[in-house]
Amino acid sequence: MPVEVRLFATFREGRFKEKQMEFPQASSLADLLEHLQIAETEARILLVNGTAVSAEHKLAPHDVVSIFPPMAGG
Amino acid sequence: MSGYCGKILRINLDTGEINKEDLDLELAKKFIGGRGLGTYFLSEQIDPAIEPLDRANKIIFATGPLTGSQAPTASRYMVVTKSPLSGTVASSNSGGFWGAELKHAGYDLIIVEGKSEKPCYIYINDNTVEIRDAENYWGKLVWETTDLLAAEAADPKARILTIGPAGEKMSLLACIMNDKYRAAGRSGVGAVMGSKNLKAIVVRGTGKTEPAKADQTKEILKGIRKEIQENDVTAKGLPTYGTAVLVNVINESGIYPTNNFQRSYFETADLTSGETLAEKYLVKNVACYRCPIACGRRSRLDGIETEGPEYETIWAYGANCGVDDLPAIIRANNWCNEYGLDTISTGATIACAMELYEKGIIKPDEINGPALKFGSAEAIVEWTRKMGAGEGFGAKLANGSYQLGQEYGAPELSMSVKKLEMPAYDPRGVQGHGLQYATSNRGGCHVRGYMIAPEILGIPEKLDRFSLDGKALWVKAFQDLTAVIDSLGLCLFTSFALTADDYKDMFNAIVGEDWTTEALLEAGDRIWNLERIFNLKAGVGPEEDKLPSRLLNDPIPDGPSKGHVHRLPDLLPKYYQERGWTEEGIPAEAKLAQLGIT
Ligand code: SF4
Predict the structure, then answer these.
(1) In a domain, B388, yes or no
(2) Closest by alpha carbon to B292, among B245, B210, B233?
(3) Same domain, B385 and B288
């Protein structure tokens, strides 16, 4: 199934900013992170279509996934 | 020694009198220092109902017991006065080096009273304190003033705090700049300096403060430094990308106000993100006094080296004005720093003017400048310059969006709380943060209780951003802890790595106390209530605990937070209850007695 993946901050280094990717049905975010070789502990903020989810979250076709390392500011 | 210098410097610009007074240390501890102690003295020494730009207003520069110490980020001072923008208590915080230098000169606070007949500046070199003529500096931009005053001081270690032309002209958006690039930005504090004909304060201090418990302090600070250096946010996120790292996460969450809060998602936000800033314009990261985090950005554009822009500035001029041109944002930021304008309120006021213009309420023939259209890079730069210079229609804009909306019969288009423009997070998608905006004692401000930390960033734990459960208590707890950190003299960004216990340990070791964490947080509660009482006496009551109607009635039209409004009416009663206030939002007698204030 098609999923749009957006990476931010240090996760872009050696990877990409934004990419359309294919994953098998019933894949979870944990599977996606493993594919991208991003440790779950490092992916502090996981958004699917703008909603915060955990790594166990199952993906659906055409989801937009945004992945952020720990960050803050203000 | 106890972290405090034990001295207040009182300067009366009416009479030219300069007095060094002893600070009552028991009183100081009760309100900690900085924001708390400054608010105590302001409340005691002025009638809160006065006109803020009247000579009867006072302006207080207040350090905390940890300012200038060995503690990490011990750079902070607070400007406390009655705000000419909001009519509330103003406490505007800044880092850099000036605050620590004041402490090293031997003063906890400076209280400036009255009004000088002619432009003047204050020169402090340890025991030497003089009121000097500033005719030659009046009208000059911040960077030039800073360089000239440094040359006159003939000491490369002298630290300069100054206003720009916006403060001189008493723009209600005027800030105070120190160390060239650091700003006590909000609430129009620069206009109060301008109203007193006070251009600058130059400080050189050669002393140092000693902690009460030296060995314990050493041990505790070692642990604190380690926590900061091992925390992913303070050791990696902030140093690498600065505060602007937030652009994408706030946008992807659909709470990035766009076109004056008409939308909350900006498609091209990444062009103005911390990642883009780092890639294209960053020279190096820079730090305030004794800061291991170093979130500051030294950037270069058009051959000019500058600092910033920070996240809130990028938002105010970027998405909020529909602009995705980072160089234009950097130029607008530079004008703010040069003229001495608050970047958040200035950008947000231009955004308000753009909506008024696009709705046909402001007419093209009355502005004499670039069309105020969303997306116009030219407009944000040129209108900022005109606002700073007080030129034509720019002079009108320079008093903020509240007055602008009132004048054009559209007050609902001013996206402000208590007349202070709200920063870069749409409350409709972060319920706790919206409650914090509505109840902040200085108006629409994100740094009185940064609920974005738990509601978006998962610090210290992740909360459901749309839920109301427990949010009133969270907001109170964050507001109280923030009041403590502001009063100690530390940077709020330490709170991404530290706990309330850590602040308690530093306070006890440096000040020489044996407080519990609860007692320290109660001091935060005391400060919050003191500010509330000041506002009540100033005529800014619970009826002002509100949000612009757009946020309560118009659902976010699109993007990841589509369909949500802010549910303030459901949250406010719970908040008053958590605070121990009456149903009407007035601090109850029993509460004030518990806190030891009247
Ligand atoms: S974290 Fe940033 S703003 Fe805070 S003291 Fe350090 S450099 Fe200054």
Answers:
(1) yes
(2) B233
(3) yes
Taking the whole predicted model, whether its pTM rises above 0.95 is answered as yes
CA distance B393 to B497: 45
Tell me: the pLDDT tens digits for B255-311? 999 999 999 999 999 999 999 999 999 999 999 999 999 999 999 998 889 999 999
pLDDT tier at B2 (50, 70, 90 boundaries)?
Answer: confident
The vertex-B284 CA angle with B294 and A73, nearest 5°, equals 40
Same domain? For B252 and B399 the reply is: yes
Listing DSSP states for B215-274 in one string gives HHHHHHHHHHHHHHHH-HIIIIIHHHH-GGGHHHHHHHTT---BTTTTBS--TTGGGGSH
Overall domain count for chain A: 1
Residues of A in contact with B456 (CB under 8 A): 45, 52
Answer yes or no: do B53 and B199 share one domain: yes
Q: How far apart are CA B341 and CA B248, in angstroms?
A: 26
Peptide bond into B309 cis (omega under 30): yes
**Dihedral sign, Cα of residue B384, residue B547, residue B51, residue B484:** negative
Residue B338, Cβ density class (10 Å: 0-12 exposed, 13-18 middle, ≥19 buried): buried
Residue-wise burial string across B67-101, b where 16 or more C-beta atoms lie within 10 A, e elsewhere: bbbbbbbbbbbbbbbbbbbbbbbbbbbbbbbbbbb
Q: Domain range for residue A44?
A: 2-68
Which of B232, B246, B254 is the closest to A73 by Cβ? B246
Q: Phi/psi at B365 (nearest 5 deg)?
A: -75, -5
The parent domain of residue B74 ranges over 7-204
In the predicted model, is pLDDT for residue B598 greater than 80?
no
Q: Is residue A14 part of a domain?
A: yes
Q: Express each pLDDT in B539-571 by its tens digit.
A: 999 999 999 999 999 999 999 999 999 999 999
Q: Test A71 with B252 for CB contact under 8 angstroms.
A: no
* A62/B contact by beta carbon, under 8 A: no
Q: What is the pLDDT of residues A15-50, one digit of tens each?
A: 999 999 999 999 999 999 999 999 999 999 999 999
B409-446 pLDDT, tens digit per residue, is 999 999 999 999 999 999 999 999 999 999 999 999 99
pLDDT higher than 70, residue B449:
yes
Task: Work out the minimum CA distance from A61 to partner chain B, whole angstroms.
Answer: 17
Q: In one letter, which amino acid is B76?
A: R
